[in-house]
Specification:
This protein is mostly helical and 288 residues long. Helix content is 52%, strand content 7%. It has ten helices and six strands, in the order H-H-E-E-E-H-H-E-H-H-E-E-H-H-H-H. It has helices spanning 14-26, 29-44, 77-92, 96-113, 139-155, 162-182, 202-217, 226-237, 259-263, 271-286; strands spanning 58-60, 63-68, 73-75, 124-126, 189-190, 200-201. The strands form three sheets. The chain has a two-stranded antiparallel ribbon with strand order 1-2. A two-stranded antiparallel sheet has the order 3-4. The protein has a two-stranded antiparallel ribbon with strand order 5-6. Strand 1 and strand 2 form a beta hairpin. Helix 1 packs antiparallel against helix 2. The longest helix is centred in the middle third of the chain and has 21 residues, at 162-182. The chain is globular and about 50 Å long. 42% of the residues are buried.
């Protein structure tokens, strides 16, 4: 905050979830002011798609203060990056407008990104051509839903409309059933989930694993998923270097029109690779 914040967009909203949690300990008025101001910005200023979806605005390449608009596009990443924060702060201040907007965004993203045939999620949707771009089932994109949607429901502490909760959880259960079938022999998942020729990717695999383990812990999934999760944990552990660096993590991934786009994303250590691995291992420890 002292050095100056980056441009406001979908991805740069993510740390506000942590800040909101952190301020329950610090009670810092500056933290509170920023969280409330950012929530108001999401409600009144962020670009919207047709039907009022949060447009997946990102930081501009190489420009911390700039933005890339991705006009009329919705990406599955948005639920984890932005909607979790909006719901968290909505619950904290019992602001029904913020809470209801979060519900609207979750249902919008399910409506346009969930594939009924497979149970998986497409990376994105554009209202410009009314299509799912390359129709790709991207590993980390799917994992944002697998992990994040349970945190989303948990924030309601039993107050989420039962019909809405059922729809969301049915999508979650269908997705993890599909993911279980697509798990590779190593325990990981391919960066293009349905393409075994694409490389195995650790950050998405870790988030999927954390989401499955959390589902078992909450009683949403039965114990038949434990073997899947245990194999995944073993695969993840084999991809942690001696110095703690998580290996085989794909870099930032923009929207692609074919599988080759995702196969050619560079592999490099990334902060989210470390973070999602920590979440997976923390969940695993709860099951020992």
């Amino acid at each position: 905050m002292e050095q100056g914040l980056p441009s406001r967009n979908i991805n740069t909203t993510t740390p506000l979830l942590t800040l909101c949690e952190l301020n329950e300990y610090y009670h810092d008025p500056k933290f509170e002011e920023l969280c409330l101001d950012w929530a108001d910005w999401l409600m009144t200023c962020i670009p919207r798609t047709k039907e009022g979806g949060f447009q997946h605005v990102t930081s501009a390449n190489g420009d911390r203060q700039g933005v890339r608009l991705n006009e009329n596009e919705m990406w599955i990443d948005t639920l984890f990056m932005t909607v979790l924060f909006l719901n968290k702060i909505g619950q904290k201040y019992q602001n029904t407008e913020w809470i209801n907007e979060g519900i609207h965004q979750v249902l919008m993203h399910i409506k346009y990104l969930y594939d009924k045939k497979t149970g998986l999620f497409y990376h994105g949707w554009t209202f410009k051509g009314n299509h799912n771009f390359g129709g790709i089932f991207w590993c980390r994109g799917n994992s944002w839903f697998t992990l994040g949607i349970l945190d989303y429901i948990d924030m309601f502490k039993g107050t989420l409309n039962p019909a809405v909760k059922t729809i969301i959880l049915d999508c979650y259960k269908a997705q993890v059933a599909a993911l279980k079938k697509l798990q590779s022999k190593s325990g990981l998942w391919h960066t293009v989930l349905t393409d075994p020729d694409s490389y195995e990717e650790v950050s998405g695999s870790a988030a999927i694993t954390a989401g499955i383990l959390k589902g078992i812990r909450y009683g949403i999934l039965d114990d038949s998923y434990l073997e899947c999760a245990e194999r995944a944990i073993r695969g993840i552990l084999k991809n942690i270097d001696k110095d703690g660096t998580v290996l085989n993590v794909s870099g930032g991934t923009g929207m692609g029109m074919n599988a080759e786009h995702y196969k050619n994303i560079l592999i490099a250590p990334m902060a989210y690779g470390q973070s999602l691995t920590i979440l997976a291992l923390a969940e695993a420890l709860l099951h020992i």
